[in-house]
Amino acid sequence: MKLLKNVCHSWNLGGHRHFFGRRKYDLGKCNIVELGKVSPERPVPKHICKPSYYFVRNSPSSGEGPPEIKTDSQIQGMRESCKLAANILKKTCGFAKIGVSTDEIDEFVHNEVIQANAYPSPLRYLGFPKSVCTSVNNVACHGIPDDRKLMDGDIINIDITVFYNGFHGDCSRTVLVGDVDERGRYLVESTEGCLAESILCCGPGQPLYVIGKSIARFAKWKKLTVMPAFLGHGIGSYFHGPPDVFHFDNDFPGVMRPGMTFTIEPILTLGVMDAEILEDDWTAVSVDNARSAQFEHTILITEDGCEVLTIPD
């Protein structure tokens, strides 16, 4: 998940930062998440192949320039990394239970990735201190795993990326923890459907903006709100690269071509679209404490359509 480059610590459109007194939102009931204690970085064995940013901190990708058109061998590498990420995500979703801390989820993911002879891509990317992003309830994105334990009624997005044999594979899911209220269940179910609907738009020759239009239309139909500050992105031997994939209604240039790989990862919320970044410079939260949900797949554009690469066994 990429943060829109002109967003620093808050996002708002049309200059509206004061959301009270406008449309009334049914937020349901949830536990509000605050920052907890973060444990030290987990070690990566010497034999694991590491991306360059493990050694030297990288800078954000601009998303500009032509998207990479991958060769057959590169596509095979992407299939393998994405399959691994999807299988680890499937296992991790089953591990996320009441009483398990997000730091324990990080430990679980880290160990699974290392055992597969892969590298957990989030670790040290732009200085991120952990091996997975865990975003609970009012945390929209980029939550840092800490000592907070999952509680009955939580929803949690688990965002896993692995670097395997030279390629990154990226996917995420939002899962229910215990007895989630009706609004929370509706949000999670609708967001998964939103991603599925947007994937149906993908194919050679299609403008990239159809993805954002589909997501915006679906969210409006479900009476939910897109959080527009967060983008999908091109992916390959690089974690983030062109094209930027906008999740809101837009007419930006760009066309899907066979051999392109990118993520689609909309965030929908029960409240307003505004988000702000907390003092750890990573955790993005809703300004109205509303919950959000996110689902993500890595997509390959083929000669006759598209292929979802992040489907588990």
Supply database-style keywords.
4 helices, four-stranded antiparallel β-sheet, 22% strand, alpha+beta
Briefly summarize what is shown.
The chain has 313 residues and is of the alpha+beta class. It contains four helices and 16 strands.
Helix content: 10-25%
- Rg calc: 18 Å
Please tally the β strands and state the result. Answer: 16
Structure classification: alpha+beta
Largest sheet: 4 strands, antiparallel
Cofactor: Co(2+); Zn(2+); Mn(2+); Fe(2+)
Pfam families: Peptidase_M24
Keywords: Aminopeptidase, Hydrolase, Metal-binding, Protease
EC number: 3.4.11.18
What does this structure look like?
The strands form 5 sheets. Strands 2, 3, 5 and 6 form a 4-stranded antiparallel β-sheet that branches. Residues 5-21 have low confidence and may be disordered. With 313 residues, the protein is α+β, with helices and mostly antiparallel strands. The two termini are 24 Å apart. The protein has helices spanning 72-95, 102-115, 182-199, 209-221, and strands at residues 2-3, 119-120, 133-136, 139-141, 155-164, 167-176, 225-226, 230-234, 241-245, 261-264, 267-269, 275-277, 284-286, 292-294, 297-302, 305-308. 22% of the residues lie in helices and 22% in strands. The protein contains 4 helices and 16 strands. Helix 1 runs antiparallel to helix 2 (102-115) and helix 3 packs antiparallel against helix 4 (209-221). Its EC number is 3.4.11.18. Cotranslationally removes the N-terminal methionine from nascent proteins. The N-terminal methionine is often cleaved when the second residue in the primary sequence is small and uncharged (Met-Ala-, Cys, Gly, Pro, Ser, Thr, or Val). A divalent metal cation 1 binds at residues 159, 170, 296.
